[in-house]
Amino acid sequence: MDSRNQQLFERAQRHIPGGVNSPVRAFRSVGGVPRFFVEGSGSRVTDADGQSYLDYVGSWGPLILGHAHPEVVRAVQEAAAKGLSFGAPTEREVEMADLLCDLLPSLDMVRLVSSGTEATMSAIRLARGYTGRDVLIKFEGCYHGHSDSLLVKAGSGMLTFGNPSSGGVPADLAQHTLVLDYNNIGQLENAFAEHGARIAAVIVEPVVGNMNLIAPQQAFLNAMREQCTKHGAVLIFDEVMTGFRVGPKCAQDYYGIAPDLTTLGKVIGGGMPVGAFGGRREIMEQIAPLGPVYQAGTLSGNPVAVAAGLATLKLVQAPGFYETLTLRTRQLTEGMVAAAAKHGVAFSAQSVGGMFGLYFRASCPQTYAEVLECDKEAFNRFFHAMLDAGHYFAPSAFEAGFVSAAHSEADIAGTIAAADAVFRAW
Ligand code: KE4
Q1: Which class does domain 4-68+319-424 fall in?
Q2: Domain residue spans in the chain?
Q3: Entry pTM
């Protein structure tokens, strides 16, 4: 008899492409049947077959407090009882804007949207409108959502402009995107030397979470800041994933870099659809209705979603929140590294704040090329062995993982013990 997950997956594929509403959920990278979740509570989720898992995906980052935090749920219920949406300003959006600008010194102004994709798409249009330039620099392996200018892969040869990495993206749009190598300072400086006057913006994940986790070299971020300042390009920190995940004031504070624009999402919605872009006043004042760069959204600043985000952002500001989250995450990665070493498995791992990377490679990769050296089949084998043991990791070797404040020391120890058993049987 097929499992309930299998039955649901077969049914889902009739009317939903691939049976999922976002590709990574389909388990195509790891194989097998995706789990259909019916409930989450704290550090755990339960699937349609009643199987419970310790959750290290957390909806890809938003659930930093764990699932169904009572104060977040209550905030949503109270807001919903007063109306789901107005398409008009509400005090809660003003509270959110004030809070974000108070927490992030680089934000003079901020605009709320409904997803990270909308945030980065809008920030790129704004940077192009503000500078009057077209060229965008991004880095191979970084993901910033699915707007056309970002679905671009490196052109052949060095410093050549991009080609579409997705169907439906016009070549003459992709050609405005220059795709460089993450942590490669020389290449970045050469690109500015050659094209500086045409570069509207650089968009970067200050800690990469979309080619597995890659930590930046401080000199790389410093060079990026210097080059953007020197050439009048807009530095966009895409903090959709790192925002309030790596620390109380995001990656920009963690690495001491003030971007010109910041994009946010995930944690600032606490599991509900909220994104944001913000930054220097002189740039943000180019956005409609003040300026010539158009951007809009029916549900932007939705009061129910913002209520979840506000409740989440208030709770993560509690004294010691990030110290504990960082400690738990480090305990997880160090425990798994020790277990793999004990059993002679080529494995490495690292964490930044509440996010982590696991690699079937002897040392942590620092570049996209080194990520590609990781043993993907080994990861897939590990993924399924841990899934069967009740520990749910991202269903792809090219994704970061996340710990929540709801993960107890016992949870972390349990996952390490499960990994030890998997490595022992390797
Ligand atoms: P959304 O449009 O998915 O809300 O955000 C896009 C985005 C932008 N910037 C960064 C740094 C991101 O990580 C994301 C989305 N992250 C993926 C996880 N790799 C979301 C999961 C998915 O696509 O289903």
Answers
A1: alpha beta
A2: 4-68+319-424, 70-316
A3: 0.98
